[in-house]
Amino acid sequence: MGPSRWRPQAILQVEADETLTRRTGRDFRKEENMPTLKQKEENMPTLQQIENTAAQLFSYVRRTPAIPWPGTVPKGISQIVLKLELFQYTGTFKARGALANMLALSPDALKRGVTAVSAGNHAVAVAWAASKMGTRAKVVMQSIADPMRVRLARDFGAEVILKPPSEAFAEAMRIEREEKMTFLHPFDGERTACGTGTLGLELVQQIPDLDAVVVSVGGGGLAGGLAAAIKAVHRNCEVLGVEPTGADAMLRSFQAGHAIELGGTSTVADSLAPPMVTPYSYQLCRTHLDDLVAIDDDLICAGLALLQQEAKIAVEPAGAAAIAAALGPYRARLAGKRVAVVICGANINPRSYADMLIRGLNSLERLENV
Description:
- The chain starts with a strand and ends with a helix.
- It contains 16 helices and 11 strands.
- Helix 4 packs across helix 6.
- It has a 7-stranded mixed beta sheet, sandwiched between helices.
- It folds into 2 domains: 225 residues, Rossmann fold, CATH 3.40.50.1100; 91 residues, Rossmann fold (3-Layer(aba) Sandwich), CATH 3.40.50.
């Protein structure tokens, strides 16, 4: 199966507000202060807000390296740079958004603590950020989460509650309601976008003359925030997204013209597999991404194998999807350009990594011929 691309016709008719109600058990339409989509458009992060957030985060997060592609650059592409966000605290970019949200809390809210729901990486980041801010975290993780990520969240001091995927959001909402803890969404909201925007700002400071950036897309928090920052500095720099064919909620939202919910997801890239897109993250990505493709798990694993072979780094599938897209479906588009590829995370257990590495080695030739 080849990569899927965004097509401008509407193919799905799932209303975004009903999506959130079903998933969370919380009817946002009845909340008086819930912003409308128009208001959400007006709340896109500005360069000044992102720069302010970068200053707030400066003493907490790492300025992760951006290095030239250590292998042979594919014919036609001028240069590839890897933005190694896998070396961020907690092993992923998620630390930026979690801490950006927590730094905005009032003293009273911070004292009550925070809650979150996650397949893994966001929970780990919230646990880490809570430890830095001297507060407590109670995180709801899916019962199918990688045991290594569960252990990481507990090691950072969080209380971890395991729930089936269909019950996780509702449990976090219950904690928010009954225990008065602040809920930190895994990818939605202006503060999250400002946090991930600091990664984009950092990248264009390190490599000022980029022509394009390729980034993985899950719920859209990383891609949207990063793209907003890059476009604010270099309007002509393309930002190209990629998500798994088995979890292509953003691509289908682009096709539908509004945020949608999937009936289910199936991909090795569990960090890129939220079953829904929110109106804010949809608008953020729709405004700032230049293109979006979906690739299958074999190509994602091929990217994982290629990074091990050429760059000598072990990454999770979400971190491999971007390089697979850059060297696969986007290769012709990137001809003659200076390209950065965001390697967003590396939280994966050794056994799963070994299985995906073998699968990827068997798919390398296919990646070269996409």
